[in-house]
Amino acid sequence: ISATPAVTPAATIAITVVGSVNLDLVARGSRLPLPGETVTGATFARHPGGKGANQALAAQRLGAAVRLIAAVGRDSAADEAMTLLHSGGVDLQHCWHDDRQPTGVALVSVATGGENQIMVAPGANACLTPPRLPDDLGASVICQLEVPLETVCAVAARQPEFLCLNLAPAQPLPHATLATASLIVVNETEAAFFGTELDHCPGLIATTHGARGATLHQHGCQIATALPPTVAVLDTTGAGDAFVAALTLALLEGQPADVALHFACAAGAFATTRHGAQPALPTRREVLELLGRP
Length: 294
Ligand code: RIB
What we know:
With 294 residues, the chain is of the alpha/beta class. The protein has helices at residues 51-61, 76-88, 149-157, 175-180, 188-194, 239-252, 257-271, 284-290, and strands spanning 14-18, 22-29, 43-49, 65-73, 95-98, 104-111, 116-121, 140-143, 162-166, 183-187, 204-208, 214-218, 221-226. Strand 4, helix 2 and strand 5 (95-98) form a beta-alpha-beta unit. The protein is globular and about 45 Å long. The structure holds alpha-D-ribofuranose. Alpha-D-ribofuranose is lined by residues 20, 22, 24, 49-51, 54, 106, 118, 120, 146, 237-238, 240-241, 277.
């Protein structure tokens, strides 16, 4: 692939992300515990996270103008969780502090080599119900499944011009909602959960395979495949979110499918080279440099 997206996009793309905000409590150790096992010797860090927030910040760093619709608690964890969204310039006018629930928390374990395990306590993310959606969602929307599914279904029912559904964490969704998506993004585990149902969706289906790259299918036929650049992996948390944001943005910019997929794989690969979810998300220039663009 010789072509890459321009360093400065021709026009700024506006994207609305409807999704979760979490504070990630991260233990980094030599290996992940087995069920029922205790592993000691880890180090601890706190990072802003949540799939919605990560994807919003990723798209903003890659050059989009992003608005995030999300809920946090009225607590100090909210400020910590939102700090990089604030400094990164994401529009947070539609984020609110819920008085009844705490800010979402993700307990993240990361092993040497970057593999992770995540357990999420959604807290205020569960308060992002359909009545909380603004009247105007905009033309291009990204959703994940860390907020109530009825909200994801309500977004799809509005039929935005471009809807990206990242089916993480995997849960059953009505076929009508899946069929509305212009782009569905799943990892291998999520792809197995949905099985052949995704073949019957009219949109693009992107499946990520970690260091083995990603594929893009439509109507069950492969239309593009890409390998990520080789990187030294430290932490895979947030890599999928960088991929979702980059692929959505590149497709909205009108990039050909294979160019968009390579860009997304490089964004995901870059995100594995630094610790934490949001601190690791690359800028557009960093992705293009990783792709070897001068
Ligand atoms: O995709 C990574 C994210 O999943 C983490 O930041 C964590 O908050 C969980 O939502």
